[in-house]
């Protein structure tokens, strides 16, 4: 089997399993929906970024996932590579709150996905964002980004503190304060470990919906928050390397104090 075709078949299989694992949108949920499901399509890797020399293609690469509309995508597999020929070459997955094409920017995703959550948070409501996808789907890029191309978390922190500072100008009420926690769940075999990424504490314990002993650090501005995120990310990478875990899931929490 051609290496490129095999790679695209494996990618299509992973995408199909991830799409099927997503929560099914319900038409009975009134607007605005309590649960929203967004899909961001990762662009194909550039040849210059590949570690191995790319094989010469006899035909153009096959793009298996296409955003046909703002709310649904079509997944197409080469007919010769179908496990079940009766299934059909193309499957349509619809009902997404929004679909972001491969050329979408971090700000495009932030404006639709994270900005509404931040505004509700500043209004006193709770919110949760979960990034799902197989290894290499660029979840870390979407959530954290880079200094030149920040992701959802730094953009959210910047928006929170810019809005807070603007709201407190000339106001008699005291400046709002926040605290920040950062932890990671490591999956090792059949067990899991919870690590505090802002302290040197040993493994933490989950009691119902509370993580006992999780450190909360008071922050007053974006610079403080950014420094904590960088520190946590450094410990996250070190912990994952030392533990040699098969998978890891990071969760970040910012709350009113």
From TrEMBL:
InterPro entries for this protein: Kinesin-like_fam, Kinesin_motor_dom, Kinesin_motor_dom_sf, P-loop_NTPase
Single GO biological process annotation from the record: microtubule-based movement
GO molecular function, one term: microtubule motor activity
Entry's Gene Ontology cellular component terms: kinesin complex; microtubule; nucleus
Kinesin motor domain mapped to chain residues: 34-257
Superkingdom of this protein's organism: Eukaryota
Key words of the record: ATP-binding, Microtubule, Motor protein, Nucleotide-binding
Gene3D superfamilies the UniProt entry points to: Kinesin motor domain
SUPFAM superfamilies referenced in this protein's UniProt entry, alphabetically: P-loop containing nucleoside triphosphate hydrolases
Family annotation (Pfam families): Kinesin
Family of the protein in this entry: Belongs to the TRAFAC class myosin-kinesin ATPase superfamily. Kinesin family.
PANTHER family: KINESIN-LIKE PROTEIN SUBITO (PTHR24115:SF1008), KINESIN-RELATED (PTHR24115)
The protein's name in its UniProt record: Kinesin motor domain-containing protein
Organism annotation: Oryza meyeriana var. granulata
